[in-house]
Design brief:
Blueprint (H helix, E strand, L loop, with lengths): L1 H9 L2 H30 L4 H29 L2 H19 L5 H26 L3 H29 L4 H18 L14 H17 L1 H32 L4 H25 L9 H14 L5 H33 L2 H28 L4 H20 L2 H13 L1
Helix pairs in contact: 2-3, 2-5, 2-6, 2-7, 3-5, 3-8, 3-13, 4-5, 4-7, 5-13, 6-10, 6-12, 8-9, 9-11, 9-12, 9-13, 9-14, 10-12, 11-12, 11-14, 12-13, 13-14
């Protein structure tokens, strides 16, 4: 009886969401070094630029499909949305085996990712009842995601070091395993009355609603700042590690980049103590330290110091990101629906990230060194965060109203 109860707990819907997300995110990040290895073996003139364009192809899928996928996630059972997302990612990786150009393959992977994302976050609000439960669920999902980034990054570096095929096969297998685990999550009926045409037309109205709400605007801009930092840092490190530390092998690069992911895993433990329920906006201060750590790391020439700064970047970034995600999901669930909220979040985050990567590309193509390009992006992000600091009064007022109702 005790064994059955323990097994039932391990197979709970929330645990299955965590495991499904871990496996899918593991392959998502294995993908990155698969791309890096493929591009390096092709000996193109500007490998960092090619990798950036491939990453931008994935982000563009988010931007283009955002008006539809939120309504799709709210209309269908979210567990089946997760299943479809993993199936589409699997097809994108499978196309690599048939010689399809990587940019097209990864655009297809991006379509799978944009379908998957609203289901991943939307289902959490269905499985929890209070802000505290939702915060803990987010911490588990984000912690498992970042642990997947850590292990997937290292595995990708090792598998892609000498050949593309092992990384492709492992990536495909894990996507299919994640897909299988979604079958263990109950299929709660969505809203069958949702009309896709009307919902697509309403998308920008949804965005306007969230931006008019202080907590919605604060969290959307804050999470966007995090993902711009993460995207630029991951691309920049590929060029920066050979220049600053003389490290060119993808397996060694992946282990150093993994320090950031490990930091976010640690942040999941610290969040309940450092950012209390009802004061989630305090995570902003950790965002400032995150950007400062990235800028400082760009000028280091010692492995231990670089890894330490990247670890601090991960810890601060996690404490910055997870409470903001919780704030947005709580606000959006009552305002426009969880799936539509995540669709708006994907659009805003990825549109801003595409712009950020574009700025980074312009800086590097102007023959600016990678170190100064990172500093330039860091200055842009600092201005971003300083703007958020002007929103504190409105955020506090929102929480005060909640406490008196």
């Amino acid at each position: 009886m005790v064994v059955l109860q323990g097994l039932r707990k391990k197979l709970s819907p929330l645990n299955m969401v965590v495991w499904t997300q871990f496996l899918s995110a593991f392959s998502d990040n294995l993908n990155f070094f698969l791309v890096v290895g493929m591009v390096n073996r092709q000996e193109v003139d500007n490998p960092d630029g090619v990798v950036t364009y491939i990453q931008m192809a994935i982000l563009c899928a988010y931007v283009l499909l955002a008006p539809l996928v939120g309504a799709f996630a709210d209309k269908k059972a979210k567990s089946r949305v997760l299943l479809l997302g993993n199936a589409l990612k699997s097809v994108g990786i499978l196309l690599l085996l048939f010689g399809v150009p990587p940019v097209l393959c990864y655009f297809f992977v991006g379509i799978g990712a944009v379908v998957y994302s609203p289901g991943k976050y939307g289902i959490l609000s269905e499985l929890t009842k209070t802000e505290g439960e939702l915060l803990r669920a987010n911490a588990w999902v984000e912690g498992s995601t970042i642990f997947a980034i850590l292990t997937g990054t290292i595995a990708g570096g090792l598998l892609a070091a000498n050949s593309d095929l092992p990384a492709i096969l492992v990536c495909l297998f894990i996507y299919l395993l994640s897909l299988t685990m979604t079958l263990l999550i109950p299929a709660k009926v969505g809203n069958p009355n949702i009309d896709y045409r009307k919902s697509a037309g309403q998308f920008f109205n949804d965005m306007s609603i969230l931006f008019r709400k202080p907590r919605g605007k604060f969290s959307l801009l804050g999470t966007s700042a995090f993902w711009v930092t993460a995207a630029v840092l991951r691309i920049a490190l590929i060029a920066w590690l050979p220049v600053n530390l003389g490290i060119e092998d993808t397996d060694e690069q992946s282990m150093i980049i993994g320090a950031t992911a490990f930091g976010v895993v640690v942040s999941a433990v610290l969040i309940p103590k450092l950012v209390p329920e009802g004061k989630l906006y305090r995570s902003f201060f950790y965002g400032l330290v995150m950007v400062a750590s990235v800028m400082a790391a760009s000028f280091t020439h010692h492995v231990v110091l670089t890894v330490s700064l990247l670890f601090i970047t991960g810890v601060m970034g996690g404490i910055f990101l997870i409470p903001l995600n919780t704030m947005l999901q709580e606000e959006g669930k009552t305002a426009i629906g969880s799936g539509r909220t995540i669709a708006v979040q994907n659009f805003v985050e990825n549109a801003i990230t595409v712009v950020g990567l574009g700025i980074y590309l312009i800086l590097t193509e102007m023959d600016m060194s990678v170190n100064w390009a990172v500093i330039g992006m860091g200055c842009v992000l600092t201005l971003f965060l300083l703007y958020l600091s002007t929103q504190f009064g409105a955020i506090r007022a929102t929480y005060s109203r909640k406490e008196t109702t």
